[in-house]
Amino acid sequence: MECTVIAETSGNSIHPITAQLVGAASSLGATPIVVVPGGAGAEEAASIDGVSKVISVVGDCFSTFDSGAWASAIASQCSGVVIAGATPIGREVASRVAAKKGIPIIQDATDLAPGITITRPIYSGKAVETSTVSGDCVITLRANAFDAAGSDGSASVNVVDQSADISIAVKEAISKASERLDVSEADIIISGGRGIGQKENFSHLEEVADIIGAAVGASRAVVDEWGMPHSMQVGQTGKTVTPSLYIAVGISGAIQHLAGMRSSKYIVAINKDPDAPIFGVADYGIVATWEEAVPALKSALAAL
Amino acid sequence: MPYEALDFYDVDSLLTDEERMVRDMVRDFVDEEVIPKIEHACRDGVFPDEWRVALGEMGVLGAPLKGYDCPGLSYTAYGVICRELERGDSGLRSFASVQGSLAMYPIWDFGSEEQKQHYLPKMASGEWIGCFGLTEPDYGSNPGDMITKAEDMGDHYLLNGAKMWITNGTVAQLAVVWAKLDGVIRGFIVEKDDPGFSAPEMKGKHSLKASVTSELVFQDCKIPKDRILPNVKGLRGPFSCLNNARFGISWGAVGAAQACFDSAKDYALSRIQFTHPIASYQLVQNKLAWMLREITKAQLLAYHLGQKKDAGTWIPEHISLAKMNNVDIALEIAREARDIHGANGILDEYCIMRHMANLESVKTYEGTHDIHNLILGRHITGIQAFTREL
Amino acid sequence: MNFKTTTLRPLKFIDGIPVEGTSKGNHMTIAVLLKQVPDTTAKISVNGGRVDENAVSKWSFSPYDEYALEAALQLKESTGGEIVAITAGPARCEKLLRDAAAVGADTLVHVSAENFNEFDSTQVQNLLAAAVQKSSASLIFCGKQAADTNAGSTGPGVAELIGASCVTLVTEVSSEGGGYTATRPSSSGHEKVAVSAPCVFAFDKGVSEMRRPNVRGIMMAKKKPIETWSVGDLGVDIGANGVNIDSHSPPAEKPPGQKFEGAESVSTVVSKLRDEANVI
Questions:
Q1: What does pTM read for this prediction?
Q2: N-term to C-term CA, chain B
């Protein structure tokens, strides 16, 4: 099966998802060509197991992200089944490559089987769709859903100089706002309750939040007693939240708190009391003191 | 949890598209602007001014009135608006009822052309708030014996007397005041700054805490001659207003009941006792089934009354029945919901106790429960039983 | 299957070069692509291998589309022009257009396709690109992805077909000189980029929530005609479907909660969050 992987780059190197894309292609029985937009990390891509060839597409157009220009520059190198990462850049470039070639695109696959049968979550994970594609197509893959290929390969690298017109000009960079995400819009929330002892200890939760781009929430007890902002409060009289991941630290799980977070997709509870009701709704419960568990969480997340 | 409006018989499918769009607009407003603020408003005892602004911007004040920049919606739409507002809080619905049915309506129906053009546009936009002065400290169910009086002084009227339990009084720019002129009840428009007029707020309520309730005091209050409502005399004036307000209440009470049901259902499903959700126990299911039954009946009553109001085939007794029944069951549902919530039901983390306390007022104002029974009794028998004088 | 050669109406853009001026002064037309989806709070159930539309309690705008519509309304308020709300799908979608009209959309277009949910991305994009061209819009606003498919292919795909630029994950758009400035995320935070029409802006959560309608808007919306364009009216061959949807199914049951003792289990849980739950 003819197959092309569009590599995801990150700064001057290859993003780890690229090895997962190659792994997925291999599982379909393909030995894909890897196209590296802009060329960064092409040598690294060549070392991924199962790659037949790396095409490093270089040109001025890669200095700015313009999916139209990028797709123009790489489309002619992409043939057969095209696989990219379901990252913001991957999705957009892949969409334009598909449209340029007049072939369908299926985004955010979590499983592939020869045929090609594609599984992907729809309705934000409330249902799963299985579909079959017979001809050429573009598929983007969810990060961490596929096993990465190894790194013992030694494919050749062809450099192609391909220019394309950029229609987007960066006028001004705005550095990351230091403002913390609001709990009502965050995809990951780490919340603290009375069990963490005192208001100052929220700084530990904030450090964890910074690593994974989470919002910091709080139970009503600490909002009332320690004067935390009401906007942080999760629960019956606070915000009702439905993030993908909710981490409750030192929260016993009063019914009013559960009312605000029990629809979260995954719940992690950290509490030293093994009988705390929060464990009743937790997918992963950790019976431990926050003083031990939170630093461990920080280092485990930082190591990802 | 997101609000699920109980509509077991899909009664809302009978609404027009426009009525459903208005419903969704008001429901979103209540979800986004009212529910997050209502408990604080109650604790502070204030009606948040941004709600006035929003009601004006949405264009729902004086909903069924036509012309003079008024919305021109159906009475059914007005009912739907009341229902959605009262799902938030009875005080919020009271604000809209008083503005639309009790202050704008009499000007619209009984006012001069100049009065309509002068007052209605700014009341529809919410720029001016109105209130309605009928009840007096000693004359509640018996307004016909009111003692507030007006005297014709040649180039002006002089008002003397006091009104009580007046929603919006202190924050209003105008009051429609009913007073006796030569022994006949007449309507007068009194403006905030008229000399001799004051509107002190009544404090200490355990009910409708996010609503302003006031006294209106007239001490040689001097108003221009063109402030009398020229086109009505006698109790027909205030009673026409009350019919419209009561109509809105019959819908509004359904909203309060739906809110209580929604909370009780959600709580019963998540509260574990004896290792199972309490929703799995027969006594709790019995309560929930009874709530569903009564709410469904109340919805059908309100909807059909709305159709009759729009078709002009209603009589005041129809409204009395709906107001009395729907408030009665809403209050009973609030009490049952409090029971299902156990001790948690008394906390302001849940809407239950607030609705329950509010509905005690709603049961009494705009014609008490008992008075509506007497209205129906008179209708059935032809014998009035309000007084001993037959 | 090839979009450009099968179109029957005059093209506004040929290979990305506008052949008619469409973005001058207040003649600017903004097409807003809107999709009706089950409300994100609604339960999704599966019946007969498909998500059961009859069981959907509430249909709404796809949330990111709301930001696109609001941004379009604001741009129109500052520069003039006209907003064409376009939705594709079965008859139920007309409600969405009325809701768009109630907040200020000027023209309502329903691209009628009863089996729209079965279309593959090529067909969807061919159809919408044809509708956009028929509307003469030079700016196209849409959400970064719809809340049903969660894909995000439509904005860039339509841009490709009509030869337009595309900026995605946009939070804000303003008019500047003869062109437009959009804010989008960058590796170091955010950046403002300059583009000119024709351009597709695919919105992330924007700076302003969609405005609430009012009664006046609702009453005007009721009277506003909806133009219904069928695939035939658009004169476009949308091509054959290359993707066969085999089935929809409920998500796999989550395993029962797992409980671990001690802080040393944290790294196990973190791996499970990545590999089992796939949430980090």
A1: 0.91
A2: 55
